[in-house]
Design brief:
Helix 3 crosses helix 5. Helix content is 60%, strand content 10%. The mean pLDDT is 93. The longest helix is centred in the middle third of the chain and has 28 residues.
């Protein structure tokens, strides 16, 4: 029983971290849940990506000299920080960093990261692109995000930690709400925000 409660608290903190930092980064939280369904761990729902980001994701439509490219890079960077916040908020509760979950989070945007940071230009950072290798035993391509997580943490962890720390009361209250209700709306999540 205890284990489950601890697991739930860790998961609640994780999604609260996404939600709070996401809001600060400009992503409206649509809802948070820790209802355990098939393979879904906790989830923070955000609105669909902007059209420009989608175009870059699907067709690599823009190059660094396009004015849209900065906007896309900005969106990706903010989303990475919002994702990193999950494992960092969870670590504040458990004392250990959940590499597996953080990797799963970044995996959600690995393609758009490749289509931003993998393109030669001022934003180029190969370490933020996943490594693809062929697994002979499995007979399929495997995507490895080990270096992506390391590099993202190296670049943005301190900033994300500072954001979490300065909004700790909000993070804690959202964690508590999620723990109690398992699922909350974005409005519920925003209703416990404190503006200092």
């Amino acid at each position: 029983y205890h284990h489950n409660m601890d697991q739930d608290r860790a998961a609640a903190a994780h999604v609260a971290g996404h939600g709070v930092v996401g809001e600060i980064m400009g992503f409206e939280c649509l809802g948070l849940t820790i209802r355990w369904t098939d393979q879904h761990l906790g989830v923070c729902r955000w609105p669909a990506m902007p059209e420009t980001v989608f175009q870059q994701l699907q067709f690599q439509r823009y190059v660094p000299t396009d004015r849209q490219f900065d906007e896309i890079e900005n969106w990706v960077t903010h989303r990475i920080k919002s994702y990193l916040a999950g494992a960092l908020a969870e670590e504040m509760v458990t004392g250990s960093y959940n590499v597996a979950w953080a990797t799963t989070d970044l995996n959600m945007i690995s393609v758009i990261m490749r289509n931003v940071f993998g393109i030669q230009g001022p934003h180029f950072d190969e370490q933020l692109t996943s490594e693809i290798y062929y697994d002979v035993d499995l007979g399929m391509e495997i995507e490895d995000l080990t270096r992506v997580l390391l590099r993202a943490r190296e670049r943005w962890d301190d900033e994300v930690k500072a954001t979490l720390t300065s909004n700790l009361r909000w993070v804690n209250e959202v964690t508590q709400l999620v723990l109690e209700h398992k699922t909350i709306s974005g409005n519920q999540m925003r209703s416990v925000r404190h503006y200092n």
